[in-house]
Amino acid sequence: MKKRANKVKEILLNNEKYNEVWSFYPFNSGYFMCLKLKNIDAEKLRIHLLENYGVGTVSINSTDLRIAFSCVEEDQLEDLFELIYQAAKDLS
User: InterPro entries from the xrefs (predicted)?
Assistant: First the structure.
């Protein structure tokens, strides 16, 4: 889990384009993390991700989207966040 958490942090910190659509809450080597969305409703994004990209997430409130990185292989994490980014851009 720690390796995956570190990979997620690396992905989020090294892709400045993500800053235009979200920030992220601090997290450790647990099972999930949360994005704080900017100008996009979390529930709308959750539904769009599921229906159009086959990606399941949890909307906690109108701005926070929970991502369970523990169920994603480390080599697929970058693809996951690219899909989330693309879905967010679809809605913005």
Answer: PyrdxlP-dep_Trfase, PyrdxlP-dep_Trfase_small
